[in-house]
Design goal:
Strands 1-3-2-4-5 form a five-stranded mixed sheet, with helices on one face. The chain is 26% helix and 24% strand. The radius of gyration is 14 Å and the shape is globular. β2, α1 and β3 form a beta-alpha-beta unit. By secondary structure, it is an alpha+beta fold. It comes from Hymenobacter nitidus. This is Circadian clock protein KaiB. It holds the Pfam family KaiB.
Length: 110
């Protein structure tokens, strides 16, 4: 897969997010998870996140560091504590709660 470059510079008072999505190739579930995650990040973390996608078919040894037992798995590295969500990330509310992301004020949730 690929690594999305770090987005724009951050204001000092804003929280910054480092996310890592573990997938295994281009399965429908992996592709859906990445699509959903990018959408949520752009809606709720625009300019305040970095997203790394790790393809375990190419780098299986990377699963051990974050103790990945199922895929796709999303890992929030920063801010701490580390949090994980398994699945295609199709339930936006569950993803936001699981990652402790507060929706931007005034933006309707879908």
């Amino acid at each position: 897969m690929h690594i999305t470059p770090t987005t724009t510079a951050l204001a000092m008072d804003e929280e910054y997010w480092e996310l890592r999505l573990y997938v295994a190739g281009q399965t429908p579930k992996s592709v859906l998870a990445l699509t959903n995650l990018k959408k949520y990040c752009e809606q709720h973390l625009k300019g305040r996140y970095a997203l790394e996608v790790v393809d375990l078919l190419k780098d299986p040894q990377l699963a051990e560091g974050d103790q990945i037992l199922a895929i796709p798995t999303l890992v929030r590295k920063v801010p701490e504590p580390i949090r994980k969500i398994i699945g295609d990330l199709s339930n936006e509310e569950r993803v936001l709660v699981g990652l402790d992301i507060r929706p931007i004020a005034g933006k309707p949730q879908h």
